Amino acid sequence: VQLADSGGGLVEAGGSLRLSCVASGLPFGRVVMSWVRQAPGKALEWVSSIHSDGIQKWYSDSVKGRFTISRDNAKNMVYLQMNSLQSEDTALYYCATDRRGGNRGQGTQVTVST
């Protein structure tokens, strides 16, 4: 399994970013995909998950209403649209095959400045 994240960057508080992840080596259309993040000095934190049907979605309380997860099974892609970013969202973001960060790749850095 290989997961490659991209789309991170430096953004001002209140801004938006869209993260992307391309997956290979797994039956993508049958797998629940997740985003997790790790802030400096903190434990890995689950952010959001999406069912293989692309309809059922789950969010942590810290991002609910601001982040939107989506996927394109034809392209083996999963996305995370992040709006109203806050300094607390600064972290290394990973897509993963489970809420604990399984099979996560190299991650993409999101830095929110105030």
Task: Give an account of the 3D structure.
The chain is mainly β and 114 residues long. 0% of the residues lie in helices and 49% in strands. The protein contains no helices and ten strands. The strands form two sheets. The protein has a six-stranded mixed beta sheet, with no helix packed on it. It has a four-stranded antiparallel beta sheet with strand order 1-3-8-7, with no helix packed on it. β4 (33-38) and β5 (45-50) form a beta hairpin. The chain is globular and about 40 Å long.
Summed up, what is this model?
The chain has 114 residues and is mainly β. The chain contains no helices and 10 strands.
**How do the SSEs run, as a string of H and E?**
EEEEEEEEEE
- Report the radius of gyration as a whole number of Å: 13 Å
Q: Structural class of the secondary elements?
A: mainly beta
Shape field: globular
> How big a fraction of the residues is strand?
over 45%
Fraction of residues in H or I helices? under 10%
**Main sheet specs:** 6 strands, mixed
**Residue windows where pLDDT falls under 50 for at least 5 positions:** none
Q: Count of helical segments?
A: 0
- How far is the first residue's CA from the last residue's CA? 37 Å
- Quote the average pLDDT: 97
Number-wise, the strands total: 10
How do the strands and helices of this protein lay out in sequence?
Layout lengths: L1 E5 L2 E4 L4 E8 L8 E6 L6 E6 L6 E3 L7 E6 L4 E6 L8 E6 L11 E6 L1
Parallel strand pairs: 2-10
Antiparallel strand pairs: 1-3, 3-8, 4-5, 4-9, 5-6, 7-8, 9-10
